[in-house]
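Example for tutorial group B:
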């Protein structure tokens, strides 16, 4: 009985935190405007906080800039001090990625019997919605702001980076107790792809993530080709460097392979634990209703300089990108597809719980 009560309490907490659990996704109230007009205003930053967390987000890319545990004072996400650096942002630190996260082979796909050609930005493929022309580098309008919540919106016009339909997208950040919610939602006037993720890189306060411990609650991953395109194949992680089914020191697995840039597979919708990262002070738990999660361990991060002008090191952080199966649209109906139908609403989320380690 106690276990059932605890599960019911968790379910109610999720419902209160995310709009995605509601039958009809709410569209935030906002003033109508011409979204194609030049943006002369600066990309403002906004802070939300409570007794446990302090979070800073930017209108540039609807980006997560800081995620601070107030008890330890530790900022657990990588980032930059100013917009100029975020406009370069080769690693998409903290950015809201769209319209489509990850890679689409040959930058094209079939939808409703029609071949859709996208812009190319990565070895003949499209990555993260078009790179420097994707959502991560756009100005997002502020819809609403309170002490514990910020909502942004962006109108992606029909044909932008090749995607069909005028898509009105929303990103919502909300904190409650020791939990940060990142949620995306949207509606289009044509069928389109809508597969966003947040590209935060996490480090719980160590020089690199090699000495941190990672648990991924999946025993399946997808291999990639030589240009990091996810293949139409699912493998077991057992006896491979991709096995994080138990808490494992990240450096132990990366001693067997230079970098991990792979999709972990659940292919189920609904709220679930996907990953946990911990050191001797903090533990981060990542939950999502999205079907899969991409792990990137950033071996090449030593080419970048972050907050305070400090150079990042190789493996300075890792990304836990909850999303749909990469390039799944080109693999038939084997995987859950991120197709947003005309006039319908889509809403998904990632939930980050941050707690101290005793």
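The residue assignment follows.
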């Amino acid at each position: 009985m106690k276990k059932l009560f605890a599960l019911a309490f968790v379910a109610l907490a999720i419902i209160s935190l995310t709009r995605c659990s509601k039958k009809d996704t709410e569209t935030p109230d906002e003033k109508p405007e011409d979204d194609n007009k030049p943006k002369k205003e600066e990309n403002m930053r906004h802070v939300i906080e409570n007794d446990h967390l302090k979070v800073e987000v930017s209108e540039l890319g609807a980006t997560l800039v800081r995620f601070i545990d107030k008890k330890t004072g530790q900022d657990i996400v990588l980032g930059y001090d100013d917009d100029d650096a975020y406009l370069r942002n080769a690693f998409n630190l903290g950015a809201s990625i769209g319209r489509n996260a990850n890679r689409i082979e040959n930058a094209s796909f079939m939808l409703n019997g029609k071949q859709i050609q996208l812009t190319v930005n990565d070895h003949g493929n499209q990555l993260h919605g078009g790179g420097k022309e994707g959502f991560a580098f756009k100005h997002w309008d502020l819809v609403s702001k309170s002490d514990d919540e910020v909502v942004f919106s962006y109108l992606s016009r029909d044909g932008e980076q090749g995607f069909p339909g005028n898509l009105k997208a929303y990103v919502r950040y909300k904190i409650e107790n020791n939990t940060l919610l990142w949620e995306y939602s949207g509606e289009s006037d044509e069928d389109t792809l809508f597969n966003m993720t947040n590209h935060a890189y996490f480090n719980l306060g160590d020089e690199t993530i090699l000495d941190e411990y990672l648990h991924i609650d999946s025993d399946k991953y997808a291999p990639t080709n030589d240009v990091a395109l996810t293949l139409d194949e699912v493998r077991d992680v057992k006896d491979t460097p991709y096995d994080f089914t138990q808490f494992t020191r990240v450096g132990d697995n990366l001693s067997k392979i230079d970098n991990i840039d792979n999709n972990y597979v659940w292919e189920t919708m609904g709220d679930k634990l996907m990953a946990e990262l911990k050191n001797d002070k903090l533990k981060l738990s990542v939950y999502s209703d999205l079907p899969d999660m991409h792990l990137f361990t950033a071996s090449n991060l030593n080419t970048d300089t972050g907050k305070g002008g400090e150079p990042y090191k190789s493996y300075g952080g890792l990304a836990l990108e909850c999303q749909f199966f990469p390039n799944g649209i080109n693999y038939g109906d084997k995987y859950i597809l991120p197709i947003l139908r005309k006039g319908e609403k889509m809403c998904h989320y990632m939930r980050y719980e941050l707690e101290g380690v005793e």
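The chain has one domain: 42-356. Compare this with the pattern of hydrophobic and polar residues in the output above.
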